[in-house]
Structure formats: structure tokens, C-alpha cells
Amino acid sequence: xxxxxxxxxxxxxxxxxxxxxxxxxxxxxxxxxxxxxxxxxxxxxxxxxxxxxxxxxxxxxxxxxxxxxxxxxxxxxxxxxxxxxxxxxxxxxxxxxxxxxxxxxxxxxxxxxxxxxxxxxxxxxxxxxxxxxxxxxxxxxxxxxxxxxxxxxxxxxxxxxxxxxxxxxxxxxxxxxxxxxxxxxxxxxxxxxxxxxxxxxxxxxxxxxxxxx
Length: 213
Prior knowledge:
Blueprint: H1 4-35, H2 38-54, H3 62-67, E1 81-98, E2 105-117, E3 123-131, E4 138-143, E5 157-162, E6 169-173
Antiparallel strand pairs: 1-2, 1-6, 2-3, 4-5
């Protein structure tokens, strides 16, 4: 027969188990919303419009700010949001990325490669680079695709994901692909896309060509 102390311990144990199950369920739902969240993408675009229009750090010149009515995007779509297998380079080599100003180069680590399967089952690979700055936790993914020069900026676009040393899989959402600052202001020196990141497909997601380019 259980004494009061045993009953109390049993009740506490059950409550802890229930709490952990609920907490786990909530965490799963939260993680899922971070995978593809159209409302978050739209909100992010509004924030970027405000930054470009009003912030002192905006790449736009004052006359451009006066004319600016918002960045141009493809409609948000889950079709260009992929799970990508990531393989880190055992010994990342240091590379000099050319920039839009030929006399300047950007030193980075060729950190690893993302293997992505598109909607048609075709697999393509993109190289991810990391800054030599130890405080930068982002993996930089410059890329070109078949939309460049027509619907998107001719020199390519950028995508970034936060680095995690334990990850062998990342979620790459091309709805977040953005133009380099030199697409708006030629005074900036922007890394050019290396040939290894030229894609033979069209990525109809993310930022389009600036209308005043």
C-alpha cells in the first residue's frame, strides 16, 4: 500500500513527464514555423524596405531614397526552400574572391558544400564560404542562376545561413536570396560569384533586379 510520501512522489513524476511532453511538442511546433514561414518572410521584406528607405547605413544614395518604393521580389514560395546535406571541408582552403572592383579581393574560407535536390529530383551543389573573422557565424553562399540579367541582378545574388558545428543538414530558403549592395550603388566592392556556384537552373525566388538599375 502506498504511503502519502510515495503518492506525492508519483504525482510529481507524472506531472514532470506531462510537462516535458508538452514542452517538446511546443518546441517542435516552433521549429517547424522557423523552417518555412511566409508571414515571417513578408515581415522581413517590410523591414528591409524601411532600412533601404530610411536608414543611414542604406546603400541607396539620397536621390535614390527619394524615388525608392520598395525592393522587388518573386512571390514567396515553398518550392525554393530546400533541405540541403552539408559536408564540411576537412581542411578548408583560403581563397581570394574577386569583387566588383577588380583591384579588391575578399579573403574567405571555402568551408564546405551543400547538396540540394530540387523539385524535379535534380541535384545541384553550392559551395559555402566563411569569413576569417572569428565572430562571424554565417555561411556565405553566393550564386548565379539562369534568371540573372533578365529577372534578377546580372552579377548574381547572395544567401546566408547561420553556422552550426553540429549540423550535417541545413534549410536553405531562397526566398531570402538578396542582391549585393553594388546592385544599388557602384561604390561598394561586392564579392563576385565563383564559377563553382553557377547554376544551370532558374531560382525564381528571393529578390529581383532593382527597378532603377
